[in-house]
Design a protein that fits this description.
Elements lengths: L6 H7 L6 E6 L4 E6 L4 E7 L4 E6 L5 E6 L4 E6 L5 E6 L6 E6 L4 E6 L4 E6 L5 E6 L5 E6 L5 E6 L4 E6 L4 E7 L4 E6 L5 E6 L4 E6 L4 E7 L4 E6 L5 E6 L4 E6 L5 E6 L8 E6 L5 E6 L4 E6 L5 E6 L4 E7 L5
Antiparallel strand pairs: 1-2, 1-28, 2-3, 4-5, 5-6, 6-7, 8-9, 9-10, 10-11, 12-13, 13-14, 14-15, 16-17, 17-18, 18-19, 20-21, 21-22, 22-23, 24-25, 25-26, 26-27
Length: 320
C-alpha cells in the first residue's frame, strides 16, 4: 500500500509563488488560507465546530479540516478557500487527527467513539470504523509502505498499532502519560511518540513493535514532527514556547529553539514544509503562526491567523 505524500513532488513542478498555508481557527470556527509569499490571508471561510487538524488531498487542491466539536469533516478548495462539502462520519464523533493518503483515502481519529475512521476522499463515504481499543485517540501516523496506522491515545497513555488490511488493532505500545504527539520516520523504521504529561518521548522499532529508547524532553511536548530528511525529530514544547530538536540516529537532544520563549503563546501544532527549509509553528495564544527557518532555527516572521489558530496544512497550490 503506497501512502507517501505527494507534496514534495509537486513543489518542484509549480511556481515558487504557489504556496498556501491553511489554518484551522478553533476559537472562532473558521479556516484561514494564507498566501505564503506575501503572508496575507487570501480567504477566511466558516467551518463546523472546533476546526483542528488539516490534511491536503494528494494533488494539494483540496483541504480537509476536522470538526472536533462534532461528527464531521469539512472540505475546501485551496485556490478560492470555498467550502465544497461537509462529510458526516457519525456515529463516529470528535474527529481530530487526520491524514489524506496518496491512494485518495483519509484516516481520521475519532476520540469519542474510540475509532480510526477510513473515509473515501472522493465522496466522503465512511469505508471502515476501526476500534483503537484505547481512550483519547488523538493523533495519527501512517507507515509509508506498509498497511499500518498508529494512533496516539492520550487517556490510555499508549499508541494503537492498526492493521489497515484486516481493520484490526493488533498491538498497543506503552508511551507515558498523555501520549499526544506521534510521527514516523520517512523510511518507516521508527515511530516517535511524545507524551505531554510525563515530558518524554518513546521511540519504537516498527518492524518488531519493540522500544528502542526513551528520551526526556522539555515541558509539555504535545506535538512531534520528523524532518523530511529523516535526521531530526522536533517537539513542540508548549510550556517553554520552544522546539526541542533530537537526533533520530542517537536520540540525543541537539538543541532547543526558542520560538516565543513563553508559555502564554500556547504553542501547539508544528509542520515542516516538504522541502525541509521551513517549519510552521501555531501559536494559539497570540493568533499567529511563526515561520521558522530550518535548520538555522531563526524565526523569520509571524503570520496572523484567526482566533486560536491550531491545525496547519501546506499546499503547493496558490490561494487566489
Amino acid at each position: 500500500m503506497r501512502t507517501i505524500f505527494t507534496a514534495a513532488l509537486l513543489i518542484a513542478a509549480l511556481p515558487a509563488s504557489a504556496e498556501t498555508l491553511i489554518v484551522g481557527n478553533k476559537g472562532e470556527n473558521t479556516v484561514s488560507f494564507v498566501d505564503l509569499v506575501s503572508g496575507r490571508e487570501q480567504a477566511r471561510s466558516a467551518s463546523g465546530a472546533q476546526p483542528h487538524e488539516v490534511a491536503l488531498s494528494p494533488d494539494g487542491a483540496r483541504a480537509a479540516v476536522v470538526n472536533y466539536g462534532a461528527a464531521a469533516i469539512d472540505v475546501y478548495g485551496v485556490a478560492d478557500g470555498k467550502r465544497l462539502a461537509t462529510w458526516d462520519i457519525a456515529p463516529n464523533s470528535r474527529p481530530h487527527g487526520l491524514i489524506w493518503l496518496a491512494d485518495g483515502r483519509l484516516l481520521a481519529t475519532a476520540e469519542a467513539s474510540k475509532t480510526l475512521v477510513v473515509i473515501d476522499g472522493a465522496d466522503g463515504r465512511v469505508l471502515q470504523s476501526i476500534a483503537t481499543e484505547a481512550d483519547g485517540s488523538h493523533m495519527v501516523a501512517v507507515h509509508p509502505t506498509r498497511p499500518r496506522a498508529y494512533t496516539a491515545n492520550m487517556k490510555s497513555g499508549n499508541a494503537s498499532v492498526i492493521d489497515l488490511e484486516s481493520g484490526r488493532t493488533v498491538a498497543h505500545l506503552p508511551a507515558g502519560r498523555e501520549a499526544e504527539g506521534i510521527a514516523i520516520t520517512p523510511d518507516g523504521t521508527q515511530l516517535w511518540i511524545s507524551s505531554r504529561g510525563s515530558n518524554e518521548i518513546h521511540v519504537y522499532d516498527t518492524a518488531t513493535d519493540t522500544l528502542v529508547r526513551r528520551i526526556e524532553t522539555g515541558p509539555f511536548p504535545l506535538r512531534i514532527a520528523i524532518s523530511p530528511d529523516g535526521k531530526h525529530a522536533v517537539t513542540s514544547e508548549l510550556q517553554a514556547g520552544a522546539l526541542g530538536v533530537y537526533s533520530v540516529e542517537t536520540g540525543t537532544l541537539e538543541r532547543s529553539i526558542p520560538v516565543s520563549g513563553k508559555a502564554e503563546a500556547m504553542q501547539v501544532t508544528i509542520l515542516f514544509r516538504p522541502d525541509g527549509e521551513r517549519l510552521y509553528v501555531a501559536e494559539t495564544g497570540t493568533n499567529t503562526v511563526a515561520e521558522v527557518e530550518w535548520p538555522s532555527g531563526k524565526v523569520l516572521r509571524r503570520i496572523p491567523a484567526g482566533e486560536d489558530g491550531d491545525g496547519l496544512g501546506w499546499s503547493p497550490v496558490g490561494a487566489e
